[in-house]
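Justification of resources, computational component.

The compute hours requested in this renewal are based largely on the per-chain cost of generating structure records like the one below. Each record pairs the submitted sequence with a full structure-token output. That output is archived, and it is also reused by downstream analysis tasks.
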Amino acid sequence: MKKSLFALAMLGTAAGAAHAQSSVTLYGLIDAGLTYTNNQGGAHSFQATSGAVNGSRWGLRGAEDLGGGLKAIFTLEDGFNIMNGKLGQGGREFGRQAFVGLSSDRAGALTLGRQYDSVVDYLGPLALTGTQYGGTQAAHPFDNDNLDNSFRVSNSVKYQSVNYGGFRFGGLYGFSNDAGGFATNRAYSVGASYNYGPLNVAASYMQLNNAGATLNSSGAVSDDATFSANRQRTFGAGLSYTFGPAQAGFVFTQTRLDGATGIGASASGTTSGITLDGGSARFTNYEVNGRYSLTPAWSLSGAYTFTDGHLDGVDPKWNQFSLQTAYALSKRTDVYLQGVYQHVSDTGDSGITAAINGLSASSTNSQVSVTLGMRHRF
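The structure output for this chain reads:
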């Protein structure tokens, strides 16, 4: 009897120790606002919006210490619309992120699931779009370089290195999962970044083959693909420099399409679809951005992006300005005011009009939006 009680006590101690070495965190962000747009389909609009800057989401993040600097890790993250409660990312339960893997203090992390590509991981933090300082509406036209995370990569295996004196690198491969077409709707990307005091630099490359649901709906990038094309190649580089309460940055990206047949309705809902002639297309983006902390609680940020395009025999050019001011009521809650102006020219008969990311397209070559919003993090 004493032996049984002793064994039970030891088992309870071991279970308690194992529990102490594991952790699960519930987290999230809610972004709700009121947006005025001067032209959506030919009419003025005043609407309640979700995720004008940062997409509303909640998630679970966990880690288990396996000993020797090795951990089992996972993330499950759900996107939703706070105004109507609907799931985002095409109705997926964990459409923003869903992965599991191993993380080592010495060797880096290897994860499997639905994940961000290397353009988002390494170059994304240097742009205003995709961050708290510009977000959704500051994205480059159609989010053509995916810096605002319009799509994630399913069926993916990702490696991310540890930090080697400020240098980090990684790569991702998304499987097509098609037994008869290994390359049909696959994706791969690589990226690297370096931090030296106030200086940050990064570069990345991504390629998609036959993205979209037309040929293989269970592939790497399906119903949330930005473009329908035989091949999409996106590459870019950027830098930022911090001096005191200010930061200035520059980002260059280019997206090249082969066999392009359309600009689809992305996850952000920017456009209802534009048909292309099946030839090549190109989007080259130049972004200059900056932000300044007026006080520890009050920030000001802005960006200018020039996009040089080529598609369907025309060479459209976009000029876009974004400006945001945010005031922190606490460490987790802030209010913001953001304005975005976009103008597109030289569109010919392509059917392209101004279309600020996350909003319905204008009926003209210009569009203005102003959003007053609130964000809460938990």
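Residues 24-377 form a domain with the Porin fold (CATH 2.40.160.10). The helical segments are 2-20, 118-123.
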